[in-house]
Amino acid sequence: MESRGQPAVCIPPFPVGVGRAYQALMQSSPPVIILNEPQLAENIGAVARIMANFGLAELRLVRPRDGWPQERAWASASGADWPLDGAKVYERLEAAVADLRLVYATTARPRETQMPVLTPREAAGELHRSVARGHRVGMLFGGERAGLETSDIALCHAIVTIPVDERFRSLNLAQAVALNVYEWRMGVSDRPREAFAQNIDEPADMETVVGLYEQLEAELDDAGFFHPPEKRPSMVRNLRVALGRARLTDQEVRTWRGVVTALSKGRGRVLEKLARQKAAAKNETKG
């Protein structure tokens, strides 16, 4: 069996600029992920990678088929080592869930149990409410070959099932974990990262932006765009509103001013060429 010494668990720090409120949310008690009788080390590594993507860190393994640790798991995790470094191994599922107040079993197969059945989104809401009351919670996933047995589900409080197409219900282990922990994450932060939500650079000041507006409007005046004249105020207003929504940076304003200048100079060259052609035609007529 391949082996790996268990290093100290080192969870990466939050990037510079991440607010304290967000850090506090992520450092609360997200669900424990419990894999019951997982078979392939590569799948365990893929689960760790998913956990790291969505802010979960505590991984528990119940009777992994090939023992633990397995070097291939770290290779599959692509650097998301901390869930693997801190993974705990249990011989009995009862011990793996003993300290948890709420445990949900994930399965795609109907079982001979009478308990609530939730979607991942519904389950995530219940898990968040439980965590807010100070409870430790977990999500249980079965092995790749047969999933969870009825006796495993009997240790849980509800079943979570993913609403997949009935024509093909098979998901691999990492996919099932991803869909569930994504819904958990949406309860922590349902907005894109700030760097994606708006320009990374600060918007230009309004003096700079108004300079662009006035340059563009002057060129449009020369081109006869504002017609009829009585509609000019509303047309100007619409243009400014459309450009204002873009929250242009200084660089973007400079780019747009360069575009307007290039177009106006190009128009001047066209008009000059037409004037020369007209004069030449007139001279030929006189001749």
Characterization of this structure:
This protein has 287 residues and is α/β, with parallel strands linked by helices. It has 2 domains: 20-195, Alpha/beta knot; 198-286, no CATH class. Helix content is 48%, strand content 9%. It has helices at residues 20-26, 41-53, 71-77, 82-85, 93-96, 120-132, 150-153, 173-188, 194-197, 206-222, 232-244, 250-286; strands spanning 32-36, 59-62, 88-90, 102-106, 117-118, 137-141, 158-160. The protein has a 7-stranded parallel beta sheet. Helix 2 links the parallel strand 1 and strand 2. Helix 10 packs parallel to helix 12 (250-286). The termini are far apart.
Summarize the topology.
Layout: H1 20-26, E1 32-36, H2 41-53, E2 59-62, H3 71-77, H4 82-85, E3 88-90, H5 93-96, E4 102-106, E5 117-118, H6 120-132, E6 137-141, H7 150-153, E7 158-160, H8 173-188, H9 194-197, H10 206-222, H11 232-244, H12 250-286
Parallel strand pairs: 1-2, 1-6, 2-3, 4-6, 4-7, 5-7
The H-and-E topology, N to C, reads as HEHEHHEHEEHEHEHHHHH
CATH hierarchy: architecture of the largest domain: 3-Layer(aba) Sandwich
Strand order of the largest sheet: 3-2-1-6-4-7-5
- CATH uppermost class of the largest domain: Alpha Beta
* Percentage of residues in strands: 5-15%
Q: From the alpha-carbon coordinates, what is the Rg to the nearest angstrom?
A: 31 Å
**Number of DSSP helices?**
12
So what's the oligomer here?
A: single chain
The amount of helix comes to: 40-55%
CATH superfamily (homologous) name of the largest domain = SPOUT methyltransferase, trefoil knot domain
Spatial gap, N to C terminus: 101 Å
The CATH topology of the largest domain is Alpha/beta knot
Low-confidence stretches: none
So what's the overall shape? elongated
The figure for the number of domains is 2
Number of strands: 7
